[in-house]
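If you are new to this repository, start here. Below is one unmodified record pulled from the training split, so you can see the exact layout before writing a loader.
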Amino acid sequence: MSLSGHINRGAIAAAAAILVVQLFVPPVIGLANSGDFGKVIGVFGFGTPDENAFKFAPVTYTFEPKYRYSMGFVSSEHILTAAAVGLDAVFHGDRTFDLRWIGFVHGALALLALWLCPRRPVVVTLLILLIFADVGYVSVMNSFFMDAAAYVFFLLTIVFYLRRQGVWMLMACVLLITSKTPHAVVAIPAAALFLVEGARLGLDRWNARLAAATALVAAVFSWNAAGPNLHTDAAFNVIFWRLLPASSNVSRDLKLLGLNESYRPSIGKHAYVTSVAIEDPAFRAEFQRRTSHVRIGWLYLHHPSWIWRDLRASLAEAGSQRPAMGNFDSKYGRPEYSQSRSFALWSDLKSRMFVHEGGRYLAAIVLLIVAALALAWRSEARTGIITLIAILVLELLAAVFGDVLDIARHFFLFHALEDVLLVATVAMIGAARYY
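And here is the target side for that same chain:
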């Protein structure tokens, strides 16, 4: 075996060791619940007291009737959680659930992606290890955020594309698309990729068309799987928490949104505070009838400067790279909201460069896109790089304009996309053959 081969194998072993230390060895690193865990674990009937939300990442969850409910969400993260619950039942077997089992499932899939990744130069291997073993990515694995499923299935989608295994790529891509409603946008460029490069992926013309259609159907399923309330709450937040408080002519902008003066009292509020109007079913139904994200887009067209303003503001917040939530169980004696600084070189570097610097962050993204396109334009990597960039741009738009709360976490998959694009760009600079 060549020296590079030994280094690549060593990198896989190092990645496994780093994940084990972070995910399994006390103090266990996870990510606190922002209120979204119930969308996944409610159907399994386990949970933790609400006072832990945001502050701590409990390791032990309890099965109790009060935790069993359904919020109407369907996600591929439910599949991974079911696997974790099954493993916990086999090896643990009492009325508690150990968080580390979901970390095991997510971590195993991430390591599988690294193991399956085709031959690559040493510098690319070391860059992959630096970036994707960072606590910013690993902490999410010990959580029930649907972003965790999106992340591991995104990595597998990339790897199966590089290996030219179209069927496996389609399976991973569908699981990515159905992980969370905002990621339904992945289906559009993915479908185009299947149509353009089906033969290269080992698919004949009809199977390539079938793969493209399957990706689009998965997007429709993902959009509907969250139910109407998610879209309504997100629209409510964008309108009343972000847009109208900054309006110089509220009456005009309400009209552009399809709303009237009776909605003024909601300005400055979002859907997740108590005693807000959206809690009233009649208000919700009327709000759904009157407006939508399409209307929001119409308002942005009348205020194009707002697009730039909100893009910069969201990127400035997302520049932190990690959501401001705790990484440790309270039993470890750490203060509330404590975050791990171990294995944080990459996320700390990016945070120092981009936090509160939305314009700088956007400039860096544009520069990376231009560099990647310039390097790929005359190579066989062109179609894959264009697809990756298209997904990155769509994910950026979804993260910025889809909702306005918990922005740093909503950018999680976007961060993975930009980092994969960076790795691909470095590989092309080194004349590496990814394909």
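Two things worth knowing about this chain: The first strand starts at residue 46 and ends at 47. The chain has 20 helices and three strands.
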